[in-house]
Specification:
By secondary structure, the chain is mainly beta. Helices cover 12% and strands 32% of the residues. The chain has four domains: 3-197, Jelly Rolls, CATH 2.60.120; 211-293, Immunoglobulin-like, CATH 2.60.40; 335-434, Immunoglobulins (Immunoglobulin-like); 463-747, TIM Barrel.
């Protein structure tokens, strides 16, 4: 714990309190002075509880969390002494938390504009005059607690009162306030030996060592090192990659679960280890080593534009050496493989579009390597990635695009593209300059961190998951020919026991667990949750998840999904937006109070505007930044379907909400987003797109353009309810959409 301040009031009798204490209020005849090396407060002959009759002093700092120990005594009069925290005025507890100490009771209160709410019940105990007591008063997070004991005795283990409250979360003052009781009578109290800490225990738990470390040579010039995410009691913030026992430049604080080492020598052998680091600087043990030998470059043949420069008549394909004729594919002459680009400036971002035309010069492209120079607003520096080619167009060209976000308006950037063979760029870049400019809305703030880790099994830049559990992910993976990173699952929801019937899950997979704020079979409401009627059941649910080992950042609680719809009991048209927000907040708070602090929380809406009363804006139901880690949306191809770019744009922007609305919102809040459910839809009334490959392609184009903020997309590979909706891709009911899906996933998105 970090000490915030201390005070012992050492000084001359009659002197003012030390400089770290600011005057709050001093009534006529009142005082706050040093007397016998203790701090003394006196009201003078006031005889009233009114603010003008109080004498108060506040410490000059502003704190969210305080854990204070001190001693005090009442010496003259009725002496109503308050110790306050998170107070938002310079006077006293007009608004803030306080321990109220009267002659016959000690009470916890939350004040708002001098009106107060008692937290818990009062401790009815006599506090006589001229007797020193010790007090410990803790306001940390949502915990509000105190304990009282005789000066000179041992501090008791248990709190006298210990409760939770989230009515005041902002930083504020710590200090003392004294009021008198009887008319024309002075009241005096004294305080001493104050020590205030932040109440946060130091994190000494080290993360687990990364597992599954692999090292693979990408030809003779690069090695890709990859590993499974480590776990930690608070959270892993970075990884360190070492090569053959030595540190690597640029690999001391890797934020993802892979690293490309470009400083290698052909023919050499290396071993790589990885360690994890948390926010407190605790470092895990080194992982098991992964060894690799770099292939020799002596066999590469290079086309120089007119002929092959052939050595040993071999070509590196990305996975091995291939014997080919010395003249190369197409006889070593003919049309060249070409790459062209266009760039477009935006507000805090820029778009690069590329077009690759294959030739018969022997070059067999696998990707287009795209990137930029310059620093973004988070100082991350130059950035690049490999874009897969995707499907060849009917005109014999490959096309793709990349949106670069978090750029600084007014700063010039060079956006570049390069043909890659076997995943290795050919170092023949096409470069163009672009300068983003403000359109009046300002540059959105950067995402503050990846709330949900990237599992990395699918190879996508975000987590690609599927509806289901158990054997279903494996079957879906076999069908689409690419692994998934996890599942989205719905338990039965008629009783509290239903919510605790946890499914099986694969190690290292993401689990998005969809539950209501109250079971549908109990006749409950958001108002009941908000009022605390189900606190015991919610805490029991949280403990069940903890006992099952689910208290990690690979568990996401999708609480009350599609809450802007009218079809679920928890929809906020049933009881109003305020009850919905308070229910969501109370559910999260009860879980955290029980110790369920490792999971992530998902607030998920349905695409509008048919979902709810159009008089509401969807953002009014946002529970708040401290309660939401990921904002999700369900966006099916219905009401209305998309067959053209114009129709697609009308379904994702200004839909209150649509996909782009959610993306814009999370960027403004520094959060992440998710596509919780998406799928093709069949409606007999024409409001569904049916077997629509265009919609499938657009979903994945959106995913790629927003990969920096996308936590996951969930393919809703399920028939639907009713089954006539035919969302499922893997059962043959949507052959065209399924073909597009399988074309995208084995090859990545390309156009």
């Amino acid at each position: 714990m970090a000490t915030l301040f201390t005070e012992t009031w050492t000084g001359t009798n009659g002197a003012a309190w030390p400089a770290q204490w600011a005057e709050g209020s001093t009534p006529v005849g009142g005082w706050a002075t040093i007397n016998g090396n203790v701090g003394q407060l006196g009201t003078g002959a006031q005889g009233s509880y009114a603010g003008a009759a109080r004498v108060s002093r506040r410490q000059t700092g502003s704190y969210v969390d305080t854990d204070a120990t001190l001693r005090f005594r009442r010496t003259v009069g009725e002496s109503f002494l308050q110790v306050f925290a998170r107070a938002n005025t310079a006077v006293d507890t007009a608004s803030g938390y306080a321990v109220d100490i009267s002659p016959s009771a000690v009470t916890l209160r939350r004040y708002n504009n001098y009106g107060s709410v008692v937290l818990g019940t009062a401790l009815n105990t006599a506090v006589p005059l001229n007797t020193w007591y010790r007090l410990r008063y803790r306001v940390v997070g949502s915990q509000i607690a105190f304990k009282l004991w005789a000066d000179g005795a041992t501090e008791p283990a248990a709190w006298d009162r210990d409760t939770t409250d989230t009515g005041i979360t902002a930083a504020g003052s710590f200090g003392f306030s004294l009021a008198g009781g009887a008319a024309a009578s002075s009241s005096v109290a004294e305080v001493d030996d104050v020590t205030v800490t932040d109440g946060v225990a130091a994190d000494t738990v080290v993360p687990t060592a990364p597992a599954g470390v692999t090292a693979a040579a990408n030809g003779p010039t690069q090695v890709t090192v990859a590993w499974a995410a480590s776990t930690d009691n608070v959270g892993v913030v970075s990884y360190r990659v070492r090569r053959s026992g030595s540190d690597l430049p640029g690999a001391g604080a890797v934020t993802g679960t892979s690293f490309v080492d470009t400083d290698v020598t052909a023919g050499s052998s290396y071993s790589y280890t990885v360690s994890a680091v948390d926010a407190a600087g605790n470092r895990s043990a080194e992982s098991a080593a992964a060894a690799v030998t770099i292939p020799t470059a002596n066999g590469i043949r290079v086309w120089n534009g007119t002929s092959w420069a052939s050595v040993n008549r071999k070509v590196w394909t990305g996975s091995g050496w291939l014997d080919t004729p010395g003249t190369g594919t197409g006889g070593g002459s003919g049309t060249a493989t070409t790459l062209t680009t266009t760039v477009t400036a935006g507000d805090g971002q820029a778009l690069l579009e590329w077009e690759l035309t294959p030739g018969n010069d022997g070059i067999v492209p696998s990707h287009v390597h795209v990137g930029r120079d310059g620093n973004d607003t988070s100082g991350a520096g130059p950035w690049s990635t490999l874009d897969p080619l995707g499907a060849l167009g009917v005109d014999g060209k490959y096309r793709g695009s990349r949106t670069f976000t978090k750029l600084t308006n007014g700063t010039a950037y060079n956006l570049h593209a390069d043909i890659a063979v076997g995943g290795v760029p050919r170092n023949q870049r096409v470069t163009k300059s672009v300068t983003p400019a403000s359109t009046g809305g300002g540059t959105p703030p950067p995402v503050t961190g990846r709330a949900v880790p990237l599992v990395g099994k699918s190879g996508m830049a975000w987590n690609s998951i599927v509806f289901g559990h158990g054997a279903q992910p494996g079957a879906f993976e076999t069908w689409r020919k690419r692994p998934v990173d996890g599942v989205l699952y719905f338990p039965a929801r008629q009783s509290w026991n239903d919510l605790k019937a946890l499914p099986g899950r694969r190690a290292g997979d993401l689990m998005v667990y969809s539950i209501p704020p109250f079971p549908e079979g109990i006749g409950g409401s958001n108002g009941n949750v908000a009022a605390g009627s189900y606190d015991t059941q919610i805490r029991d649910f949280a403990q069940h998840l903890i006992n099952a080992g689910w208290n990690t950042n690979l568990t996401v609680i999708r609480l009350g999904w599609e809450n802007n719809g009218s079809w679920y009991q928890w929809g906020w048209d049933r009881g109003g937006v305020t009850n919905w927000i308070n229910a969501y907040r109370r559910f999260v708070t009860q879980c955290r109070t029980q110790g369920l602090t490792g999971v992530r929380w998902n607030w998920c809406l349905n695409k509008g505007p048919q979902s709810y009363n159009s008089g509401y804006s969807w953002t009014t139901a946002y529970p708040g930044d401290e309660y939401v880690d990921v904002v999700g949306i369900d966006q099916y191809d219905h009401y209305s379907p998309s067959f053209t770019d114009a129709q697609w744009q009308s379904q994702i922007l200004g839909k209150n909400p649509g996909l782009q609305d959610v993306a814009d919102f999370v960027r403004s809040r520094g959060k992440m987003m998710s596509i919780d459910e998406w799928g093709v839809s069949h409606f007999s009334d024409g409001n569904g797109g049916g077997d629509n490959p265009f919609y499938v392609g657009k979903i994945f184009q959106f995913c790629q353009a927003n990969a920096d903020i996308l936590a996951w997309d969930n393919t809703y590979d399920h028939a639907g309810a009713p089954a006539s909706l035919k969302h499922k891709l893997s059962d043959g009911s949507n052959p065209n959409a399924a073909a597009r899906y399988r074309q995208i996933y084995p090859n990545g998105w390309g156009g």
